[in-house]
Structure formats: structure tokens, C-alpha cells
Amino acid sequence: MTAPAAPALKRTTVRVFRGVDPAAPRFDEYEVPYEDGASVLDALTWIRAHLDSSIAFRYSCVNANACKECMVRVDGKVGYACTERLKDSGVTVEPLKNKRLIRDLVTDIVPPKETLAAAQMRDDGPAKG
Ligand code: FES
Known about the structure:
Blueprint: E1 10-18, E2 26-34, H1 40-50, E3 71-74, E4 77-80, E5 91-94, E6 101-103, E7 106-107, H2 116-124
Parallel strand pairs: 1-5
Antiparallel strand pairs: 1-2, 3-4, 3-5, 6-7
């Protein structure tokens, strides 16, 4: 008895915003193998492991849709990279527009009152009591 053959993987193109200047968009294109149901985050992690280790993106919970750190724009719409699905026609992945861009797909998601500088300002302020 032999195991059934694994289905051949499909391939699609993932266009990824690169750089640190949202006013000068640059995109790199990667061809990735995938199965139906694979997520954009699956593609990004595959790209980083196999094609380009310099690509910057953020995630934490991996498909639990709990951390919200993987939020990006996929084909112009805001979504979670871990739940957005790849498709045969390809996808374009960009950083959020309403957050400060750090690099590639990583934006500053820390609420302003929770930054290290804000915490230090609170700690260094006048003593109370
Ligand atoms: S990786 Fe946590 S919500 Fe997407």
C-alpha cells in the first residue's frame, strides 16, 4: 500500500513594500509556493526563510488572530496577514498608512502614551505626595 501522492503546490506572486519612506514606495516581487488556504503570513515567513532574510514584518500569535501585530494592507485593504489568504492572481502587501513606518511592513503600533519616552517622562516628573 502506498500513501496518496501529495498535491502539487501552486505558485503565486507576492509584491511587498520595501524601505523606510512611504513617499517613495518600492516593491519587491517574490514567487512563492502555496496550498489553498495558506495565509499572507505563511508567504512572508516562507520568503524570509528561503528568498530574502532582510524583509521586515511583525507577528506574534501565528494564526490565532489574537495579537493583532500582523496588521497590514493586502491589495489595498487593511487586514491581518495571518488570516488573509493567498490567491492565484497574487497579492500586494503594504504597511498601514495611518501609522509611522519603521521599515518594510513594520509600523509603529505602540500607543503614544505607552512609549519608553512617555514612560520615562512620567517617572522623571515631579514627585507626588
Ligand atoms: S499573528 Fe497575531 S493576529 Fe496575526
